Amino acid sequence: MATQFLTPDTADTQFKDDGAITRQRYRFSASVNGAGDWVILPPEIGDVVVSVAPSSGTARIEYTLSSVADVEAGTAVARNWPDGDVAGYTDSLISNSVTAIRCVSTAATDFVVTA
């Protein structure tokens, strides 16, 4: 299974242009249909906000507490977010005590992670 990494938001011009802004923002977005790739969270960031916006059908966020090696090997144990399967736009704050998160959907879904 493929993995992605939550990376710095290179479009964050406020961080780049204003020396007073010392915190880099992170952003990942994808259109998912089925089980999306795991997005590994960097350990140095705080909590993350995740959102799903299914075009039809349902979507949910899954997270794992498994090791990065297990995520990369495709053997991570997935757990569902408390909102379960949702049919419309939903967002949630997830603690960065998790290793990785992903979106699982039954139809095309916009999936966004920000920190």
Distance from N terminus to C terminus (CA atoms, Å) equals 24 Å
Structure summary, number of beta strands? 9
Low-confidence stretches: none
- Total helices: the number is 2
What structural category characterises the helix and strand content?
A: mainly beta
Fold topology:
Blueprint: E1 3-5, H1 13-17, E2 27-32, E3 38-40, E4 48-54, E5 59-64, H2 68-73, E6 79-80, E7 90-94, E8 100-105, E9 109-114
Parallel strand pairs: 1-3
Antiparallel strand pairs: 2-9, 3-8, 4-7, 4-9, 5-6, 5-8
Question: How would you describe this structure to a colleague?
Answer:
The protein has helices at about 15, 70-75, and strands spanning about 5, 25-30, 40, 50-55, 60-65, 80, 90-95, 100-105, 110-115. The protein has a 5-stranded mixed β-sheet. A 4-stranded antiparallel β-sheet has the order 2-9-4-7, with no helix packed on it. The protein has about 120 residues and is mainly beta. The protein has 2 helices and 9 strands; from the N terminus they run E-H-E-E-E-E-H-E-E-E-E. It is about 10% helix and about 40% strand.
